[in-house]
Amino acid sequence: MNAPAQISLERSSAPTPADLTITVRDERFNRETTPRRWWAGEPFGTAWHNALSATFPRGEAFFIEAVKAHRAGAGPKLDAEIRAFVKQEINHTREHIAFNKLAENAGYDIKAIDKRVEEMLALTKGRPEILNLAATMALEHYTAMMAHEFLANPRHFAAADAEVRDMWRWHAVEEIEHKGVAFDTWNHATRDWSKWRRWKVRSLMMLIVTGRFFKNRWEDSMNLLAQDGITGWKARWGLFRYLVVSPGVVRRIFPAWLAYFRPGFHPWDHDDRELIGLYEGDFADALLPTE
Among the four 65, 87, 203, 277, which has the fewest Cβ within 10 Å? Predict the structure, then answer.
């Protein structure tokens, strides 16, 4: 059966705000620390965020290359946003390397997580680069959804060490700020595709990414909880409760995840830049102009 060509599945122009500024915040966290300074005793949030952070150094390098591979021919605005995106992601990589060292100093072995990410990224070699961009776009939506939730709901970091909390807030602000860059790059790179094909590929990739994301992060978190001596039903229920019940980041981001499959979706359909303002006042000295 042929696709219903009369249905508009994508907007003709992206709703990225015309006045959006992507700011590089040259912040540094978690230096000169000791193994005693950590998450303040909440094991399930600690495991989840350690598992996330362990994926970021290699993952964000992948995002950078996937977006840069499709910047040729981009207009001046998108080209400038890609440059700012790259700078922000490089800083995120640097700070998560420091955060991961903090986790290791606290006694956690996260090398297996990094190795899994390395092996998965090796599987992307040789496949069409547009699929790497589609995966990046889906994962950037995940980071933007969680960033919004982490900033909007203080309960996520209520028990965290203050510097750890500030690092995650900083990262969340910049994920919100550049949440449309990979998507706009996708629209640019697939501008000659039919609307049906663009919607189909990005939707299928989101389903694939979702399955792998939760399977791998669950297994990684279980491994880290086992290192804390928490296993079996206690570990499974505790992590499920943390993710779905309270504070419930997975439950709370579900509507935003579902919106990704809507014909005509764009990350900036929801302008949540007010959350950035909650952060900026505390760190004004770290702001750097973008080119």
Answer: 277
